[in-house]
Amino acid sequence: MSNPGWTRKLVLIAGIFNIIALLTILLSIFRFTPLTLIISVSVGGALIGLSVLLYIVVVVTDLKERGVL
Hints:
Elements: H1 5-30, H2 34-66
């Protein structure tokens, strides 16, 4: 079973996106203003959604490689 190098990079990028998204959410908790709330919801939500999509791509690729899908 060979793990392509790009899947490892995708998981790393998804993890970084999650950390940035969580930092934007923490920003709205500690500095609660309407602007930080909008940034938290829009940027944080988009980054979390993108990272989940990247995780799904990696999982589906791995399952296809193992012959499950």
